[in-house]
Amino acid sequence: MNYTHLGRTGLKVSRLCLGTMNFGDVTDESTSLRILDEALEAGINFIDTADVYGTEQRPDIKQGSGLSEEIIGRWLQQGGRRERIVLATKVYQPMGPGPNDRHLSAYHIRKACEDSLRRLKTDHIDVYQMHHIDRHTPWEEIWQAMELLVQQGKVLYTGSSNFAGWDIATAQSAASARHFLGLVAEQSLYNLTARTVELEVIPACRHYGLGLIPWSPLAGGLLGGALKKADSGRRARPGFARKIEQHRRQLEAWEGLCDALGEAPSDVALAWLLHKPVVTAPLIGPRTVEQLKEALHATTVSLSDDTLDAIEAIWPGPGGEAPQAYAW
């Protein structure tokens, strides 16, 4: 496993980040624990979760259960693991029926952090990420709450997820005025079919020294050999079938290119992201141990300039960075 710095920090993380959104949902606890064991054995030291992940969600109020965090906590309780991993979780989503059981008020940040620490059975979170932007809470309040958690030793670094480029700039401007480190990483939707972040989010990350952690790197399975696996698992659902038909010509060219390379489409899709300078680690979310082992190969896949050009021809981006992408 290769390692790189998380953004501008001195912290080193693996080039793949283990996402645990499926833990306690489509992946049962025993399999989740095996995935964690195998990931650590393979050298993955970057583990990402969120307070909202888990199956026990109340449809009436759409609140999370914290089940994924609890599974990780029970894994950490087995000993000898906490200081070998970089543990990331998130705050923002509804975790209760009350009006203050969500978003980024200082009130909720404090409570959510305490609850996550309890579920994770640890005394600190390495990277505490805001799961979404909250434009109803001023940055002075957010950073004051985060600074207090850092001072208390409960949080080491802060990150964001689903932020616009100008949200990152605003956040870092407010943090700088307080002489606070601010954001060190951003989690964004980024894959060959979804490249909007290339306009402004990636330039903002590069300018402010944030590591980019792409989520859904395989576009929900579309880039993982969807044509050959169209009748299996989630790909057999009507909604996914429609998505395949929308992209059929591109997928035929894509899977043909991967066949010519002798590599699995999922590995090439991950390798493409790993070739992007701002990308720290794509977020993989294996549902099984076998899927985890398959993803590990992506870190060894090297793509030539000609191959990268061929990929760009199949899956063109927005035309570069803003404003050059759309203005003279």
UniProtKB/TrEMBL annotation:
<dbReference type="InterPro" id="IPR050523">
    <property type="entry name" value="AKR_Detox_Biosynth"/>
</dbReference>
<dbReference type="Pfam" id="PF00248">
    <property type="entry name" value="Aldo_ket_red"/>
</dbReference>
<feature type="domain" description="NADP-dependent oxidoreductase">
    <location>
        <begin position="15"/>
        <end position="315"/>
    </location>
</feature>
<dbReference type="InterPro" id="IPR036812">
    <property type="entry name" value="NAD(P)_OxRdtase_dom_sf"/>
</dbReference>
<protein>
    <submittedName>
        <fullName>Aldo/keto reductase</fullName>
    </submittedName>
</protein>
<dbReference type="InterPro" id="IPR023210">
    <property type="entry name" value="NADP_OxRdtase_dom"/>
</dbReference>
<dbReference type="GO" id="GO:0016491">
    <property type="term" value="F:oxidoreductase activity"/>
</dbReference>
<keyword id="KW-0560">Oxidoreductase</keyword>
<dbReference type="GO" id="GO:0005829">
    <property type="term" value="C:cytosol"/>
</dbReference>
